[in-house]
Amino acid sequence: MVIGASTSNLYPALTEDALDTLLQLGFREVEVFLNTESETETGYVRQLRKKADLAGARIRSVHPYISGSEPYLLFSAYERRFQDGLHLYEELFAAAKELGAQLVVMHGDKLHGVLPVEESVGRFERVYELGKGYGVTLLQENVNRFRSSDVDYIRAMRAQLGEKAHFVLDLKQCRRYGADPLKVA
């Protein structure tokens, strides 16, 4: 078993400082939580990658700063905003590729979102396909106050997406919304 850590564990430390701390503590498997748009710029992510490489660490996943905005950007009924959200995710996928990360984590649609479940899952699939073009896999995290806290939504994703359905199981989030982790998984 390999134990990793996320730079988000040290928030509000600057991402590069949080990465330095995790590396100094001996973590060699890390998630980078990008906290703002400027942290997706090529020069910045190359510096993070260099730090990880020099320490013999691997940046396994990226968690984007726009998680709380995903319902508004990607899962609203306004198509142009969805297209703009795809552009933001394209920048995130490019940053993840530059970091060597294979995974990007999404919170997704809000609980009781405006889109029908099938369309909501379809939006996830479109973002997923964009990520595959960068060699990155999009994962849906189960998060309180998001559709992914609903076991039926997770089942709908699995049924509609098949092998494209990938998840992050957050036990703390299960506890927050009162779900049995064994039923979510």
Helical content, roughly? 40-55%
**Biggest sheet: strand arrangement:** 1-2-3-4-5-6
Radius of gyration: 16 Å
Q: Can you tell me the overall shape?
A: globular
Q: Which regions are unreliable across 5 or more consecutive residues at pLDDT < 50?
A: none
Alpha plus pi helix count: 8
Q: What is the CA-CA span between the terminal residues?
A: 19 Å
Instruction: State the total count of DSSP E strands.
Output: 6
Give a brief description.
The protein is α/β, with parallel strands linked by helices and 185 residues long. It is 48% helix and 14% strand.
Give an account of the 3D structure:
- By secondary structure, this protein is an alpha/beta fold.
- Helix content is about 50%, strand content about 15%.
- It is built from 8 helices and 6 strands.
- Strands 1-2-3-4-5-6 form a 6-stranded parallel beta sheet.
- Helix 5 (about 115-130) links the parallel strand 4 (about 105) and strand 5.
- Helix 2 runs parallel beside helix 4 (about 80-100).
